[in-house]
Amino acid sequence: MLPSCFSHSAISSTLSNDPIPPPLSIISCIYQTNLFNSPTLLTLTWSLSLSSHSLSLHSSPSASLSASLSTSLSLSPSSFSLFSPTSKSISLHNSHKLKIHWDFSTAKYTPNSAQPISSFYLAISCNGKLQFFLGDLVDEFSRRVKAVVLPEESTLLSRREHVFERRNRYVSRAEFLGSLREIAVELCGGVLKVAVDGEVKLAVKRLAWKFRGNERFFIAGNAVDFFWDVFNWVKSEGGSGPGVFVFQIGEGGVWPEYIGAEGKLMKRSLSSAAAGNVSTPAAAFPALSPAGSSSSVLQWAEESSSDGGRSSCSSSSRSSGINGGFSLSLYAWRKD
């Protein structure tokens, strides 16, 4: 029987026994862009902890890149690069030259978030041509490179955020359907509630039997398919891993790879679950679990996509995937 609110022991994740303190925030976004004039999937993973703040970049192989490309930037206050615009050059095969430019000296963040929301820029040029730009300081970047900058449009396919809380309410503040929105997931009294900008959109009762599932609701007239998996929160002794929640528009987006701090977090949690001989839902570790797992909420999201309710929206980097699809996933971790 489910308690009136999930008890501390019932939803405590494997992170509680980990000697390494959990991060404050990890956010991964995957963009459809061009590098060296070839379509490329670019993953950005922002990570914030008590001791560090970093950004990892990873691009998949493409027609112009025979191998994947990975690098990282330190955004910690102790880093000199944080206080002034700077750049980093990378030489690749076939004499290709990639250059990363960034300025986070005046960046603004929502509380405890690793990803800036304004007053920054991140740019990537390939062989001297700007091919990716993120941020709102276009004029500042133009002055720095002494040229008129016309950023190529990139498309945000999906966003995955890890939220760490000591209570049963998990909040994400993210660009969704063209606006910065507050999306909250709350569990209490055996009920899962989903609220957008303070308005409850969905309430799922009897989670002891409905620990996995999907429902549809609407935001500003746009259909949003919501998928959840809280199996370990209600079925496992001691709990293991995060609760996974997916908000999908249209056909959904492409999931980012696990890189940088996020990759370390997921592998550490998976190892802890294995050491404790506890079942961990494949939903939490789609890239680390055996292929074909029928319990993956991420697979359900792909298989349950419908033609109805598709929507696209425009911004500096559009938050809609191919054919109007976009996915936002929230990994909710309980910490002591």
Automatic annotation (TrEMBL):
It holds the Pfam family DUF868. Residues 299-325 are annotated as: Disordered. It comes from the Eukaryota. Residues 306-325 have a biased composition (Low complexity). It comes from Cucurbita maxima (Pumpkin). The lineage of its organism: Eukaryota, Viridiplantae, Streptophyta, Embryophyta, Tracheophyta. InterPro entries: DUF868_pln. This is Uncharacterized protein LOC111493906. The gene is LOC111493906.
